[in-house]
Amino acid sequence: MAHESRPQLNSPGPLDWRKAVWDGVLILLSPLLLVYLLVRLARGKSLAGLAQRFGWLPAAVRELGGNSEPVIWIHAVSAGEVAAVEPLVRELRQAEPTARLVLSTITATGHHMAETRRVEVDALIYFPLDFPGITESVLRRVRPRLIVLVETELWPNLLAAARQYGVKVALVNGRLSDKSFPKYRLFRFLTGWILGNVDLICAQSETDAERFTALGAAPERVQVAGNSKFDENFPQVPPEETAKWRQDLGFGQEQPVFMAASTHPREEELVLRCYEKLRGTYPELGLLIAPRHPERGDAVEALIGEYGYACRRRSRLKDAPEGEAAEPAEGRADARVQVALLDTIGEMARVFPVATVVFMGGSLVPVGGHNFLQPMACDKPVVFGPNMQNSRDLTEMALREGAALQVADGEALCATVLRLLGSEAERHLLAVKGAALLDRNTGAARAMVERLGELLEQP
To answer: How many beta carbons lie within 10 A of that of residue 204, not counting itself?
Structure first.
């Protein structure tokens, strides 16, 4: 749809007393925040995009703010949110062909994923610190007509500045977990002010919509729009590529493989204990571990070694000379019994077809779980633990329709995977139900973009 030339930002309105209180708290806490940042820097974290985090944007981004085309700023905190905004970006490109799209992330993992997956945006930046003065400066440079936030990225200073400057704000894939909702409710006088600066909330479910309203969002601004993750362009991996992955990772072409994806500390140990038990029945079983944070590769490799297994590590194989990756790990008497470590960014979606059964991590520890649609889209049986608060609606749908399995602990995981390894019929049934679940829930991204277009038309 066409738009008139992007208007100038409005002059800032009067300062809300709640913003003054919030900024005062931030200033009082700034010494502690500075120490926290310095510790992270000393550990090699938050170094990427440091200047951008303090509001110093690349010239190319500043130039976008000087053009007449409307700018839409999309913020996705990390890799999972980047995957969720890809369908939105695709739909926005069709619905708003003249718009310039800026994507921001907080984590280096999310930034790298956006680069490697070539998300079609005009600029990719690190999200600025939500500190008084910094967010206002960035807004004046980017000059967006619309800011699109993903899930629960509610940054008080950014939202207040957007309201002051007349910039529209939308929250898509909006959710409030069982864990976070009671905490937000304790500070309703602040959440009401924060949500009052959001013009549109596209919630994932009726429960999420009710929670946003309970925290102070105007009911007329809250809509249930589903989850754009269903609209992701799931990769179609040809059989020859899957065969190459098996070869590179050290697995035989017919060897069963247990894959633990997006795992966290303490979870890998539960998986390795499970693997030892599973090998009692399936001695040829391979194990593939893909930690949620690839930078933990050294620690996970050391843990694998403690259990007596050699480890075939993808980050090393990528740089190996041609043909070397196909060789079995040193010192292995039987190359079919293999533990491989996928410690790279952006490859996991293409590796799922290697697996016979997939366990999705972040769910046996109190992290909240991770998106399991990618392995489901590869027709793989999916198992996850009890902690799935971050994907509550997806989890309820999958369990209700029999498209995934949930276990209570590590012992139950082992028993369930053992059963699946022995039942091709059950694995096939889970795959069929998973495909049906995906087919029935596509279209959320397009519906959200239609609502965003209506918001852009408002004065």
So the answer is: 24
User: What average pLDDT does the segment 316-334 reach?
Assistant: 52
Summarised one tens digit per residue, pLDDT across range 25-72 is 888 888 887 888 778 777 776 677 889 999 999 888 888 877 788 999
Beta bridge partners of 287: 258, 339
Return the residue matching tokens 């208007």.
7
Element (H, E) at 289: strand 286-291
What lies within 8 Å, CB to CB, of 72 at 6+ separation is 92, 96, 99, 100, 101, 102, 144, 145, 146, 147, 148, 452
Query: Average pLDDT in the 399-408 region?
Result: 96
Query: What is the Cα–Cα distance from 175 to 184, expressed in whole angstroms?
Result: 12
What predicted TM-score, i.e. pTM, was given to this entire model? Answer: 0.79
Domain limits, the chain:
44-227+443-457, 239-440
Query: Which residues share a beta bridge with 383?
Result: 359, 405
- Confirm if 108 and 128 have CB atoms less than 8 A apart: no
Domains 44-227+443-457 and 239-440 share a fold: yes
Residue 255's DSSP bridge partners are: none
* Element (DSSP H or E) covering residue 31: helix 17-42
**Distance (Å, rounded) from C-alpha 294 to C-alpha 264?**
10
- Indicate the SS3 state at residue 182: helix
Give the H or E element holding residue 82: helix 79-95
Going by C-alpha positions, the residue among 153, 192, 176 that lies closest to residue 74 is 153
Per the listing, tokens 């105007």 go with 218
Q: Show the tokens assigned to 181.
A: 């909702």
Quote the distance between the C-alpha of residue 117 and its chain's center: 13
Task: Tell me the C-alpha distance between 84 and 81, whole Å.
Answer: 5
Helix ranges, 128-282 (H): 134-142, 156-165, 180-185, 188-195, 206-214, 239-249, 267-281
CATH topology of domain 239-440: Rossmann fold (3.40.50)
- Which single residue is written with the structure tokens 């998973």? 434
Cα distances from 11 to residues 128, 155, 162, 167, 396, in angstroms, run: 21, 21, 11, 11, 46
Considering the segment(s) 44-227+443-457 as one domain, its CATH architecture is 3-Layer(aba) Sandwich (3.40)
- pLDDT tens string 340-370: 999 998 899 999 999 999 999 999 999 999 9
Residue 26, φ and ψ in degrees, nearest 5: -60, -40
Contact 258, 356 (CB under 8 A): yes
